[in-house]
Amino acid sequence: MFCSKKKSLEVERIVKANDREYNEKFQYADNRIHTSKYNILTFLPINLFEQFQRVANAYFLFLLILQLIPEISSLTWFTTIVPLVLVVTMTAVKDATDDYFRHKSDNQVNNRQSEVLMDSKLQNEKWMNVKVGDIIKLENNQFVAADLLLLSSSEPHGLCYIETAELDGETNLKVRHALSVTSELGADISRLAKFDGIVVCEAPNNKLDKFTGVLSWKDSKHSLNNEKIILRGCVLRNTSWCFGMVIFAGPDTKLMQNSGKTKFKRTSIDRLMNTLVLWIFGFLICLGIILAIGNSIWENQVGNQFRTFLFGNEGEKNSVFSGFLTFWSYIIILNTVVPISLYVSVEVIRLGHSYFINWDRKMYYSEKATPAEARTTTLNEELGQIEYIFSDKTGTLTQNIMTFKKCSINGRIYGEVHDDMGQKTDMTKKRAVDFSVNPQADRTFQFFDHHLLESINLGDPKVHEFLRLLALCHTVMSEENSAGQLIYQVQSPDEGALVTAAKNLGFIFKSRTPETITIEELGTLVTYQLLAFLDFNNFRKRMSVIVRNPEGQIKLYSKGADTILFEKLHPSNKDLLTLTSDHLSEFAGEGLRTLAIAYRDLDDKYFKDWHKMLEDANSATDERDERIAGLYEEIERDLMLLGATAVEDKLQEGVIETVTSLSLANIKIWVLTGDKQETAINIGYACNMLTDDMNEVFIIAGSTAAEVREELRKAKENLFGQNRSFSNGHVVFEKKQPLELDSAVEETVTGDYALIINGHSLAHALESDNEKDLLELACMCKTVVCCRVTPLQKAQVVELVKKHRNAVTLAIGDGANDVSMIKSAHIGIGISGQEGLQAVLASDYSFAQFRYLQRLLLVHGRWSYFRMCKFLCYFFYKNFAFTLVHFWFGFFCGFSAQTVYDQWFITLFNIVYTSLPVLAMGIFDQDVSDQNSMDCPQLYRPGQLNLLFNKHKFFICVAHGIYTSLALFFIPYGAFYNVAGEDGQHIADYQSFAVTMATSLVIVVSAQIALDTSYWTVINHVFIWGSIATYFLILFTTHSNGIFGIFPNQFPFVGNARHSLTQKCIWLVILLTTVASFMPVVAYRFLKVDLFPTLSDQIRQWQKAQKKARPRHSRKPQTRRSSSRRSGYAFAHQEGYGELITSGKNMRANNPPPTSGLEKTPANSTSWIENLYKKTTDTVISFSQDKTVKL
């Protein structure tokens, strides 16, 4: 408590390097993290407190206390304490096991090793022992232990490259700069040990993209920003080593500040059961009051007539006090209407469902030997009720692998494969181009269109210029490994795919200096002089380079978004522009990410004048950025179109089918990603979440709250019609309208809509004034995509839907940036992918591929919900039927709290006689097969609507139980009234009546569960018929001479069972009771299935008829809105790399520059491209011959 209070008051942080004594007085948190809930001391009190928050557990504890009072105890105390202790112990063991694994994962992280500078030398230290102010050394591909101020690195000018996938989901590299004064420290341990700078900075917060602070050292101050900070969760890439000073540690790091709190999750059925237990308790009190009043009246009017005979010399008994004691006695007797075995059974069933998920081979990912894992056992049935899925993009929907698929050059598409009839055919049916003759070829690169190589070999100038541009216009850095192979360090995966494609096709990027770029063109080394680099940013959406070739020509090469670049083209490109636009639309329709490619020849004098103006703009003090942007616009005009590229951001296998299937199940999918808007939109189209035939795609991009509010309002007007009101009387735009939306309003929206909103706009939209409009609009849309969102915003979106929609939510992600979202949702799923295990450790369920979500929800989730609902309906029915017999008997026993059954039957009924059959149904039952559940996603709908178990269903079960209890009591009572046995003796004694009713009850409830069971297994048969056999075995044993001889006081009714059950009239009574209880249900169900069959009933009939033929899934052809063309532009690139390249800051000193600067050098005596073309031509000819022979 003290620490949290101190942290909340922290306004700024003061940290001194290499001085633990100084920093300890501020009591900063150490680097140890805790995701666990308990420790050895707190486990018992906290866990018991959580368990007794369950109304049922508190209720049974109260009953146990009552049973310890002799005056009112009509049942022995062990009937309650044994099952209560069993339930609490089982739950505690499960919770302890779950928390043990959390401790284990915490220890794995906390015990990672890091090199810390202590006592003027580097020492290996565990992460948890790292303190604020320590200087630590990181090496390439190492995780960052804490939030660090970068001091120095192995790269020139103190640069280092990091991957932030754990924070924002992006895999493209980002650059961090050390201050020049600290970068001089290098790797000199003695100088680093003497570093005593003091950092004054902001207090711990969750803003990933912002940091403010000041470093004071050597009598000077240096401002700090986010570019100087490396955050915990990042991975050091392409940097041999770096040193950093710890600013925030452990729970204070920005990653942990965004991770959210671990919440106690309970299912909607759990919450409903709590409500029902309260209702039942109220019902019991009413029954107890009725019986207590009856007892008082009976005692007053009848009891005094034979009290002297019963009590001997006792004085007159107070009838009111007698009624009071009777009230509590009946509360104890009737408590079996909600037996504690219900909760034991629920936990066992959930455990069984969890094992089914763990054992499912169809959710086992063999490539990484990763099975699905249910990391909690308490949420299974809620998997069958999901309405909203919140999904991360990078690593969840995609593989983070970019591949060059197609291109359009001078109006011709390359990358498509056609058959002999000129029709497009499947690429996998064709042989890929063999690049093995290219010594620098990427072995993983596949391209199937041989015509491109033919055009290269024939010397098509446009094709050569196109590939030359791909090899020159980028920010890629190259290195050679020990085997002489080129290794590309790419800042974005898009650029890597394009440069790799050019390399395989003969235009190999070799090296660069701040002034030159060297490429190998079809075996010839060519060095270009780099004159200017026009960097990419989110507003320009393009990048350009200006180079001078060996012939002295100056060329501008540009690539970027087609919507931007097409506006810069020379008018002579009109025909080519139309053709290329059609190609781009085709690429975008296939879900490919596109870039337009163009160039311009520049006059020498014009360029010199322009470059002089650029130098002046760079040295300007006011409006510098605006002047530079204007000059970029000036030179990037009158471009000549070359074509376009199409790159595939590879989706995980089965993503499209999974998204389509979940959509058919009426599940809405929202994508929450830290990636760029264009990238997210493109993936949305690739996954079929967004389609070209949608009525409208709303984009919210306002930068102020007022702008966002206006954009939301306009979108709603388009969706509903301005100021439109509905029959329910609510006006959509009324400010005082509650946030909960009427389903009637949703049904009025026809057509498919999508909403796209970025992080800055979302921050304003989540404000209290706007969240209503955001939620209304979003819930009317089929798909919602939130881009550039922080981890905390992801959680806020989930909380918004949870709070106001009363819907079950699921969050799925694979990185640390998804942890807070996973914790906030009702169900959290972690994908064990490329980005570590943080998401998995925080999740409720985990698996390796997004496609397994379909099976988890539509099969396991649906079955779990179906089974749990069936189990609860049956359990409440059988216990009302069992218990209410005592109520009817009370009217015939003087309200004396006498039980109608003997105590052993009451004790064993729920534990032995009826426990296993209902467990078998709850664990194994299924209405339709797993394949039919997958093939017919509409079966999922009842779970979302909560149709299988709700308050209405509960009252039906209660009514059914009351009817059965009436039949169980009054049919035997009427039959026994004034009747004699076959031997002429009177058989209407109390124990014979009890045996007849007990036998009828066991047979009736066993027949009922046989009727309820949809899927019979050997276990069902053994448990149901075995339970009946067990009942008779125990009945005859407890009424035998042998047991009486051992326990005469406990089993006094010797031979009663044998005497009663040998009478034919008793069996006729049992048969009549069973038929009267059972036949109305059979008739109702038969008529219901015959006249009003549900979808599940129909499919079950198909299964019984063994109709195995299923309709084939056919993908709908791509259709596009005729009104506009969609751009497939998406480029995961960061601003600032152009400046790094031209400044030379990221160039290693040991890279020798080319000797002349502008030259051509033959790389090999024979061009490998000719060999490749010859080999390819031979392949095509042989392939064609093969087909000719077959024809």
From TrEMBL:
Keyword Translocase: yes
Entry GO CC: plasma membrane; trans-Golgi network
SUPFAM superfamilies linked: Calcium ATPase, transduction domain A (SSF81653), Calcium ATPase, transmembrane domain M (SSF81665), HAD-like (SSF56784), Metal cation-transporting ATPase, ATP-binding domain N (SSF81660)
Requisite cofactors: Mg(2+)
Subcellular location(s) of the protein: Endomembrane system; Membrane
Catalytic activity: ATP + H2O + phospholipidSide 1 = ADP + phosphate + phospholipidSide 2
Protein name per its UniProtKB record: Phospholipid-transporting ATPase
Organism (species): Camelus bactrianus
